[in-house]
Amino acid sequence: MTTTAPPPAPTVPRQVVALPCSPHSPAVARRVTARWLEAADYARTADAVLIVSELVTNAVRHTDGPCELTLTAHHGTVDIAVTDHSEDLPDLPDLPDLSALPDLRRTPGGVAAGAGGGRGARQGGLGLEIVRRLGAAITVVPRLGGKTVHAALRPHAPEHERRGPP
Question: Does residue 16 have a pLDDT over 80?
Answer without folding.
Answer: yes
